[in-house]
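TICKET #2291
ISSUE: user wants both folds in one file
ATTACHMENT 1:
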Amino acid sequence: QVQLVESGGGLVQAGGSLRLSCAASGRTFSSYAMGWFRQAPGKEREFVATISRSGGTNYYADSVKGRFTISRDNVKNTVNLEMNSLKAEDTAVYYCAARSGIPTTQIADYAYWGQGTQVTVSS
């Protein structure tokens, strides 16, 4: 029904920037709130950012506020995560996810997930 593919991950030095993208296939992309989550080695998956269907509302984890920006383009069917001032603790696999309805911070609320893209920040 909905397929999500992340891209843009890679290796970057601390203090640098990366922009992740998530391409969605499906006829009703604009009906989904979108989220970004991440999972570091040995840790549980955690919320990073989410954006509403129209892009008018978004929320961020405290750990990334002021550094990361989520955005979406409902014409191109993409959601992006711009990451600035990266830290070693940002190293993780980043996942794009989709859900019907309002944006939330809970993993269990999201029905569709991408395969993940690796972000590695060197200290």
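ATTACHMENT 2:
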Amino acid sequence: QVQLVESGGGLVQAGGSLRLSCVASGRTFSSYDMGWFRQAPGKEREFVASISWSGTSAYYADSVKGRFTISRDDAKNTVYLQMNSLKPEDAADYYCAAHLRIFAVSFDRTRTSSYDYWGQGTQVTVSS
């Protein structure tokens, strides 16, 4: 069982930056691919970014590519999402998620159903 707790959300002006953090419980954090998703009011939850269990590969939605950076610190059981050049359309609740890696088995990291554990979310508001 893994528990995920996000933090770092808040109100920021368009063009500003925020860094979200997600701390995971448990000793096997390095066994998980980690992802960030977001959900705006009235919309479906959508993929934002993910990072492989090894930290060597990162993936981004086209809408955030070049502005957001995902990273992880396994010593702290933490995954980060650095968000720069924020736009009003980035406003949403942001969720981190964990997918337990199975050796040699690929998965669709953009699908919510691929992830085993979810945090409660942190709200990001971007004023124009």
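RESOLUTION: both attachments delivered.
EXTRA DETAIL ON ATTACHMENT 2: DSSP finds no helices and eleven strands in the chain.
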